[in-house]
Specification:
With 691 residues, this protein is α/β, with parallel strands linked by helices. Helix content is 31%, strand content 23%. One of its GO terms (cellular component) is cytoplasm.
Length: 691
């Protein structure tokens, strides 16, 4: 039996609907959900004394159920199908004396002006607006004009719809331009009984007298029936908000049917501000054998630790899911702009939403565990927030790591999952002979991080490797007497600070393009300038080019630096290389770098490149300029540290490299000078390979 139309145009044909309802018989045909799903929205607005018009009623039970529950009784139903009107008149009969069914075309209604307080349309607009042809749009305009005519000022037009983009835009633009208030409700799903994968929406459009001039549009969305409305500034933003909810519904439907081959990521936003509150990753582990208790779990990532390899990379999350032993693990990252009321508060907030991401085969009433590291949500304190003209918006924040350690981080919010700079904070120690606190004095807060920077600790593994590369300088002494170092890229200043403090004769020049970073490093990361440490606010490209040009003008070879270190990020996120910017690894510029490097010196480059072809091109260019090239990959990260030497006769024996590294470390580890015991220079160079 063919009930669907041969072409979309038949949806507007009385002949088609007559045939449809004769073939379907007495069985109700419900477009987009039944009364229980729509009732919570309707009862917010429809009053018992309202006079209600239902356009395109079909043989839906909606009117009958509204009547039977006492929502309202004065209901007029119209349709263009004679067959369905007779069918419904027989079905209601004397049971609902105040409700009527009339054969009438809603494009040309017989009712007087302002006759109804409510007009209800369940799927009718969707059936008519099947395309955006001129004739179709003209028909819709006529429909809207008639609805507007028969509706009183203050009355409401309810349109139940799947909210296809062209349908939603047409309705919202038409009525908002007429000065009406437009509010879009998302109808709560009905579980397994829901007929459609896509969510159902109700446009509630309230009629106001049109004010001459440009009155502001009032557009709102209610994600679920119990939520208060959220104001949006434009039709485009309203359409985008609806699309987000449609995509989420499709995603949930897909995840409920089959395991996901690739990790799925989505943001859950704050209802008030619309800003992301949680970032979820759905990770399936096919290797985990399912049992009753290991289908599904939620893992709350402690605040500030979302950038760690285990939580911030696809491979890390896969390893986490496998080690946790669950078939599906949803990791939840918490956003710095939000406030959270502990693990219990997060669990209460997320429990309903994450169940929509449950895997197929989850037993009914299954308890889903919430997991975390140490059972808490971590500590994150934003110390400073500002915007730089060059680097954009950034934050300085203190976060709690493993155990009792705290770390201070600089994060550029344009790339919020990457820690730009990091330093460990020193634990507070009581002063010698300090008197006991009075009982009425405020006790120290264990969650309050310390403020002093531990300058002996290099948090970043790539910084440790870059410092270890200084043993390639050779010479009779492990630590050259008058070491001249150029560092391009300041960040928080931990790399140049370490070189300055541990190489006591080193003279360090730092080039930083962004003056805001010098202020951040000085105020928040313990950085300071002096006789042996100077910062030059300049573009690194210009600074190096100027030094090379000065040597050329003097017709001499400027051998200024023993070591040149590049640790500079790229602001262009569209390139597959985030460090350094492409211009820093072009051959003409690299030749200038070589020019200002001593013959026995070393050029150290932090390379972060996800594009394999681009990376190979960079390595080829480096080989053309520097005869000797070493590489050190940083485990669990994209970073690769490249050590480049102009002298082809440099050290190429791994055993000799290890001996040099041990000798350098021995020279740096002086009595009374703190040293991180986990930092072994020889280990840093153990995995170095010659390219």
């Amino acid at each position: 039996m063919e009930l669907l139309p041969r072409s979309p145009g038949e949806f507007g044909s009385a002949r088609y609907w007559d045939r449809f309802f004769r073939q379907r018989g007495q069985r109700p045909f419900e477009w987009y959900g039944a009364f229980p799903e729509l009732c919570p929205v309707l009862q917010k607005y429809v009053r018992p004394r309202d006079k209600v018009l239902v356009v395109g009623c079909g043989n839906s039970e909606l009117s009958e159920q509204m009547y039977d529950v006492g929502m309202c009784e004065d209901i007029v139903n119209i349709d263009i199908s004679d067959a369905v009107i007779h069918q419904m008149q027989e079905r209601s009969g004397s049971k609902r004396p105040k409700m009527s069914y009339l054969l009438m075309d809603m494009l040309q209604m017989d009712f007087p002006d302002a006759h109804f307080q409510v007009v209800l349309d369940k799927g009718t607009l969707d059936a008519i607006l099947t395309d955006e042809e001129e004739a179709t749009l003209a028909k819709v305009d006529k429909m809207f004009a008639e609805i507007s005519r028969v509706l009183q000022v203050g009355g409401r037009y309810f349109c139940v719809s799947l909210a296809q983009t062209h349908v939603l835009k047409k309705a919202v633009k038409y009525f908002s331009q007429e000065g009406w208030v437009v509010r879009v409700h998302q109808v709560a799903g009905s579980g397994d009984k829901q007929q459609f994968v896509l969510p159902v929406f109700v446009y509630v459009m309230t009629k106001f007298r049109k004010i001459p001039g440009s009155a502001p549009q009032i557009l709102e969305i209610c994600p679920e029936e119990q939520d208060k409305p959220m104001r949006v500034e434009s039709v485009e933003r309203l359409v985008a908000a609806v699309k987000d909810r449609q995509h989420y519904a499709l995603l949930c439907s897909q995840l409920s049917k089959t395991p996901c081959g690739e990790q799925v990521s989505l943001d859950l936003c704050d209802k008030e501000s619309g800003r992301p509150r949680y970032t979820l990753h759905v990770v399936d582990s096919p290797s985990v054998k399912p049992s009753r208790d290991n289908h599904f779990a939620i893992f709350i990532i402690p605040q500030g630790r979302e950038t760690e390899w285990l939580f911030g990379t696809e491979e890390g999350r896969r390893q986490l899911a496998t080690s946790a032993g669950f078939g599906r693990l949803v990791t939840v990252a918490l956003h710095r702009e939000q406030h959270y009321e502990g693990m219990a508060g997060i669990q209460a907030e997320l429990s309903g939403k994450v169940m929509e991401l449950a895997p197929p085969g989850l037993p009914a009433r299954q308890q889903v565990p919430f997991l975390s590291v140490g059972g808490d949500i971590g500590v994150r304190t934003v110390r400073h927030r500002d915007t730089s003209p060059l680097s954009g918006e950034y934050v300085v924040e203190d976060v709690k790591g493993d155990g009792t350690c705290y770390f201070r981080r600089l994060v550029f919010l344009c790339n919020r999952n990457v820690v730009q700079s990091e330093a460990r904070l020193l634990a507070r120690t009581p002063l010698t002979g300090q008197k006991k606190r009075r009982k009425d004095k405020k006790k120290p807060n264990p969650a309050e991080p310390p403020a002093a920077i531990d300058k002996s600790y290099l948090c970043c593994e790539h910084h440790k490797a870059m410092v270890a590369g200084l043993c390639l300088l050779g010479g009779p002494d492990p630590v050259p007497a008058l070491l001249a170092v150029l560092v391009v890229g300041l960040g928080g200043g931990s790399l140049p600070l370490f070189v300055h403090d541990y190489f006591s004769q080193a003279r360090v020049a730092v080039v930083e393009i962004d003056p805001s970073m010098l202020e951040v490093a000085t105020r928040w990361f313990g950085f300071s300038q002096g006789d042996r440490m100077r910062v030059h606010i300049s573009d690194g490209l210009d600074y190096v080019a100027k030094l090379a040009a000065e040597g050329t003008i003097l017709q001499s070879i400027p051998a200024q630096y023993d070591a040149i270190m590049f640790d500079v990020d790229s602001k262009d996120l569209t390139v597959g290389m985030s460090c350094p910017p492409p211009a820093f690894v072009e051959k003409p510029f690299l030749q200038k770098v070589k020019t200002i490097l001593k013959p026995e010196g070393v050029f150290v480059l932090n390379l972060v490149c996800r594009d394999a072809q681009l990376k190979e091109s960079v390595l080829a260019t480096l080989r053309e300029v520097f005869p000797l090239l070493y590489a050190r990959c940083i485990e669990g990260e994209v970073n690769e540290i490249l050590f480049c030497q102009p002298n082809p006769k440099g050290c190429q024996d791994p055993a000799e490299l290890g001996a040099r590294a041990r000798a350098l470390e021995g020279a740096l580890r002086q009595p009374g000078r703190p040293w991180d015991s986990s930092y072994v220079l020889a280990d840093m160079l153990q995995a170095v390979k010659i390219l």
